[in-house]
Amino acid sequence: MTEEENPIEEEIKEIPREIVVPGEVLAGKDFLPGEGTRRENEEIVASRFGLLEKTDKLVKVIPLSGAYIPRAGNTVIGQIVDVNFNGWMIDVLAAHQAFLPVMECFGYINKKDLTEVFTFKDIIVTKIRAVKPRSVELTMKEKGLRKLEGGMLIKINPTRVPRIIGKAGSMVKTIKDETRCNIIVGQNGLVWIKSDENDVEREIVAKKAIELIVERPFHIGLTEKIKEFLTKNKK
Amino acid sequence: MTKEEKLKRPDGREKEELRKIEAKVGVIKRADGSAMFTFGGSTAIAAVYGPRTLHPQHLQNPETGVLRCYYDMTTFSVSERKRPGPNRRASEISFVTTKALEPAIQIENFPNTAVDCYIMILQADASTRCAGINAASLALANAGVPMKELVSAVSIGKTGDHLVVDVSKEEEDFTVMKDGKEIKAATDIPFAIMSRSEKISLLQLDGKINSEDLNEAIALAKRACKKIAEIQKKALKKVKEE
Q: Which CATH superfamily is domain A152-232 in?
């Protein structure tokens, strides 16, 4: 392991993107303040801890840590925590519980007993329809949104989700293909893994690969590294 | 200056010399953000959770998020065992810490939620509230809570006729002999100063001081906090190398 660690450290240093802290001056008045920044007089100041991203005109800070903040359009994984007469309350690891109304659920629903569709402790993959000051509204009326059965669920830091998915889903596809697992990554940091052949060993390999990505978010040749790791652990 | 007037600190420090500072972020894995901050013999750890739902519900504010800080000392942090659980002193410090950090954070966009910050003193050797504020500020930044700037804290003391930066326990208990009696002659002023705007968000005074000295103490605190802010910045940026 020690032999492998040295090259990693070298590669980290090559990364041009800089970490910024709140209150740090990022740019002058020629730029527009993006996410995680704000304008103060003539300067643009970071208001979050994260990676600096400067494009032609825009400055923004990509968060490196923190709790999940729900956004409309995010696909998330959640757990049913309550069943009401008109829908389900779902925990999506956000500050507020999310609500899934019957109207936004697929298929035929017997309104007399909503637990027939989803019951307590069920895990579902769902989409955020709207974010309101006190609640989050969900929908199931989209392709791929369903109840998740079997497999394993792991929690990672939500800021690492883009890394897990990779460019146009390349990273998650690599893991899927190599381990023959079905993987769903929720934007809220929950990842569902299920082997196509119900092979727990494979699920564990996939889980380890994901944990590896979470630990090494700055590594440049990460996809290659993960491929190597997966082939090594292949049976 | 005669020999007697010359400042002599118990640990041989210069007037403006801080104790050895150690700062580290991400020390508590399960928290959304965490940090450790050490001033010589005073060590504080802070863990931040949230924004999360605020309970009890009557504390919820529909206009903005709420910051709650909890300060406490571990039983083994002082020479005589501290009774576990918060006491009057701890709740006061929790309150002033919250007030010291509040102006720096921006949680207006998270109504009805709370950001909880738990500060634990692992080892106490004076200026624990300052170490606590420094750790909390780091932990809040590490937790990705939107902030205007960082907050740095330092205590300025007056031992006899001298102003000193970063008071240690010995200096805090400084006494002079007068008419055969020992009289407490130490003054302790904890400051919290915001890194960018240099606004003072905490100023407490324990002891006596005249206005001239207070003005000098403020200038000293600003200089010291600048140094601390640099160390905090470095600690946050170090994440990358791990």
A: K Homology domain, type 1 (3.30.1370.10)
Neighbours of A47 (CB within 10 A): 24
Residue B212: other Cβ atoms inside 10 A: 8
Which of A9, A21, A218 is opposite residue B237, by nearest beta carbon? A21
* Cα–Cα distance measured from residue A86 to residue B208, given in angstroms and rounded to the nearest whole number: 65
Q: Which residues pair with B44 in a beta bridge?
A: B37, B121
Structural class in CATH, domain A75-148: mainly beta
Q: Tell me what the mean pLDDT of segment B73-98 comes to.
A: 95
Domain range annotation of chain B: 21-241
- Cβ of residue A96 closer than 8 Å to a chain B Cβ: yes
Kindly report the number of other CB atoms within 10 A of residue B198's CB atom.
13
**Residue B114's beta-bridge partner residues?**
B52, B66
User: Which among A83, A99, A66, A81 has a CA at the least distance from the CA of A188?
Assistant: A66
Handedness of CA A66, A69, A71, A75 (dihedral sign): positive
Q: To the nearest whole percent, how much of chain B has pLDDT over 90?
A: 75
Cα–Cα distance measured from residue A45 to residue A23, given in angstroms and rounded to the nearest whole number:
6
- Residue A160 DSSP class: G
* Nearest-Cα residue of chain B relative to residue A9: B241
pLDDT digits (tens, 9 = 90+) for B26-66: 999 889 999 999 999 999 999 999 899 898 999 999 899 99
Angle of the B211-237 helix axis to the B128-142 helix axis, nearest 10: 40
- Structural fold of domain B21-241: Ribosomal Protein S5; domain 2 (3.30.230)
Percent of chain A with pLDDT over 70: 91
Over residues B184-212, the pLDDT tens digits come to 888 999 999 999 999 999 999 998 899 99
DSSP codes joined into one string, B79-122: SSPPPSS--HHHHHHHHHHHHHHGGGB--TTSTTEEEEEEEEEE
Mean confidence (pLDDT) of chain B: 91
Chain A CB contacts of B147 below 8 Å: 22-23, 47-49
Domain A18-63 has CATH 3.40.50.720: no
Cβ–Cβ below 8 Å for B144 and A64: yes
pTM to 2 decimals? Answer: 0.89
Distance CA A191, CA A65 (A): 17
For residue A93, report the phi and psi dihedrals to the nearest 5 degrees.
65, 25
The residue of chain B nearest to residue A158, with distances taken between CA atoms, is: B32
| Residue A4 confidence (pLDDT) | 40
